[in-house]
Fold this sequence. Notes:
The chain has 24 helices and 18 strands. By secondary structure, the chain is α+β, with helices and mostly antiparallel strands.
Amino acid sequence: MPTLDSLPTDKPELRLTFVGNDPECGRTKEITGVVTLTPEQLLEDGVPGNLPDGALVLITGAAPFRLRGRIATVLESLLQRMSRRESPGLIVSAAPGARQPFPQPVVDQAKRLDVPLLTTTAPAEKWEGVHEEVQQFRLRLAERRASQLSSLVQELPAQLADSRAIQRIADWLAQVLDAQVLVSEPQRVLAASPATAAEQLAQAVIQQSIDAGLPDAPSRPHTRLISLSPTSAVDTVLAVARNAAFTEADLQLLRHAAKLLGLVDQAHREYRATSDASRAARSAAFELLLDGEVAKARRVMTNMVPGLLEPDTARIFVIETEQVHRDSAVRRCSSAIGDHALIVPDPRNARRLLIVHPIRSEEGNGAAVSAELAHLVGTFGPRSSLGGSGVYSMTLLADALQEAMAAQSFAALQSEPVVLSVHGSDLVSLLPQAEAQHWARHLLSPLMRDRAQWESMRETLPAALAYPYTVAARLLHLHRNTVMRRVRAAADLLHMDFGRVADRITVALALEMVTQRETAVPAELTSAEPPALARLLIAPQVQTWAQALVRPVQADRRDLLTTARAWLVSDAHVEPAARALGLSEVTVRSHLRALEGHMQRDLATLSGVRDLYVSLHVATGNSGLLEDHLGLRVVA
């Protein structure tokens, strides 16, 4: 706003001279306009009744202030009216060199009322148009202020969790005022613009703390400190410094910005407090679920997400990403599936977040949530991966977590960063593909030398090894004797005994590699000695897969692994296994059913027996389960 020191005019002759009272008095008072009067008007009409607030009063013409009586009374009334209207000053035209154009009583009254007295030597015509210039200046200033406030409001965050909001407002303030801006607490800097402002303004903030100054007070020339929360115990301060002095308009803008910064800071604090409480409750619910305390976990989550944990089954997902991206990943997952899942950061791993997805009976396996997570993890960065468990009872989520963590470990080792359910992971896909293909082709080479023979073998053997011959013949639309003849021929060529579980598993695995994978074998591998199957099984992803399968079996109080080993030694026959263990056949069958439940494998199928066999060897480190490069051999 224009003041006595900054009249919006380019006429140097309108320079004003202060008379009588303190020259600093009223210099910063805002001028809203100029009211021009003459001595004759004052004497005839008296003091104007419609004197505008903040108007500068100019009396032109000869000043008959040497007179007493009526003119003195009029001037006293005028000064009183000007004081009530907060007029910035009374100007009178005076001849150059005049010592005292105002009577002493007028000077004394003006001093009491804090109304500056001034003189101008410019003729009246020079003051023409000044009022209009003041009005135009005020209009431009108002438009600029409205634009500034509008742009300030635009810096407000759309979400309370926007941690960059305070920095954006500080950047805006620094640009608008051409100043250095710092927003800080006693222990940390919340925002600085430019980045060097923290160093430049730190001393001013420290000095205010020592002096316990006012919440809005200058600490040194052209520096302002404003408390963002003067009515609370929070010591957040806005510090602003620049080379030029602050005008009243600048200070008003500062106060507006400080109020908005205070609201944003308060919102951040309240959001963090609420968010921390919510996160703590969710983490507590997750830990209760892992401990099998489902009822307690449901009570914790009842008020937060009613009904979320009511289903009796659930899946667990594990996402691993860069540590700096984890909080963002938690927010994005919460936004996408927060109404359907319990999402918590892993307290034991700073790169990991854990997700429980309760599944209702009508949802099947909850494919929609897993698909959404698979999409999201692809946006978290190149070092992000997702693992998911199968569907588990709510009381067995500790096992589900182990499976999901194993699946995530697989995903981290593969080009495709998503593995959903380690129990559903295919052993064949986890083997080193080129080396496994080389091993399989070498093993089956006796069958592949004659093309016609190979075609009949690749048609017959997969079914014949997996099912009784009568069932295989029906599936293949062949006579049972034809199936038996081809199986005997294959066993002779491979030097195998297909009555043994190990030989059936070995050849079936090699057939699947050759007939379904068809991975090219690099030339350098073709000329080298084929690897032993034991070497293929030491791949890290196979080790993790085996541990995940065997872990819930090992946790059972019954010695299920001993039963499994005896059953495999007996080539999957219950009666000899029971005799070897000194147990009843009922007990052995009960143990086998428990193994199926823990491993989620059907031991009536060759693939289920294969996964039990391989995981038992890999996870327990029993070297006696492998004999040579031909395949797996069970020993008593």
